[in-house]
Amino acid sequence: MANNFYPVILAGGRGTRFWPLSRRRRAKQLLPLNSSKSMIDETVERLLPLAKAKQFWVITNDDLRDPIVRQLKKLNKRQIVAEPVGRNTAPAIGLAAFLLASRDPDAVIGMFPSDHVIGDEKRFREDIKHAAEIAAAGPNIVVIGIRPTRAETGYGYIEVSHEPRAASQRTGKSHQPTVISHQPSAKHELTADSRQLKAKFQPNAEGRVPSALSVRRFTEKPNAELAQQFVDAGNFFWNSGMFVWGAKTLADALREHLPSTAPLLEEIAASYGTHKFEKTFAKLYPKCENISIDYAVLEPRSAKGEGRSGIYCIPAGFGWNDLGSWAALYEHRNDGNKAGDNVIVAEESFTSNADGNFIQSSKFVAAVGVSNLVVVETDDALLITTRENSQDVGEVVKWLDEKKMKKLV
Description:
By secondary structure, this protein is an alpha/beta fold. It folds into 2 domains: 5-321, Alpha-Beta Complex (Spore Coat Polysaccharide Biosynthesis Protein SpsA, Chain A); 326-408, no CATH class. It contains 13 helices and 17 strands. Helix 3 (89-101) packs across helix 8, helix 3 (89-101) crosses helix 9 (262-271) and helix 9 packs antiparallel against helix 10 (277-284). The longest helix has 16 residues, at 121-136.
């Protein structure tokens, strides 16, 4: 991998849907949900073969910076940056873009959430290498897409072209791009031959799918009916939240699409490494727009049209899970077992006529005649819900915040 690849890990989230285990100072990314290592530690370890430790940057918040510094001893703690206030993903990754563009004109940034589970790490790295090559070849943006397995309404979707782009088009070299006309209706009507499209995007004999596909548009969290249309169409992928782009490419995109925020980020980045940085950061960052990179850059850029936007999707060749809720963790832990098996994290347990439950406790657990529950106990709190409603656990944290019950958040 070239020496100009810089992994930037976004680690500022609170992980409220994993309450009561996830707290303000011990958020989801710091928890060992998938193995004996924390989620963020796993993220760094899988990326280390692609870049030197000194090339990593982490964007987090004041509550989590010290715990992250303690966990990630291999990284330069000066490059673990705490936002003074949360401003969503566009300002966070934008700050990294301006920081790196001024230091390395050829910098290629990989943006990675801190709390994903990756199945085949070797293939993951192959996909990221390919994405970095495309990003380095021109003003291109590459997103890793996940082939949907269900009509999920909690993810954003990426619509791709029907055909893989030619090699010269994928790399952004000089060419006259073929523009495929696409004017979706207000109802996002899909007219493609679903069976034909699905066949194009099925894995080949080696388990691989087509290389880089031109992106037509992004759609954030559709309703159930629209999500099912996307899955049936065959040329839609889940947006994994993993992107690769040149630092200059992203900085220029922010100047174009966030003209009031970009100068603030540029001024903050210019002060990095000086005695003015903390004061400048605290003064200017709260003035940045509170907006995701999807809404800020990807949607308006994709609106330029296929062949003009320079946005490409690499279908993931690896297993992926974002562990977005207790129900998702149940499914992940239960992978390979019989449907309906219980997942119980406890010293000892007993079950009778109980199925589909996720229970975590330091005490002896007995589950009798209950199904599809989520029960999580900590020293100071007890969560009882169902797997179906586990996406709503974040509402508990909102209520605790409103009541100023700081000890429980």
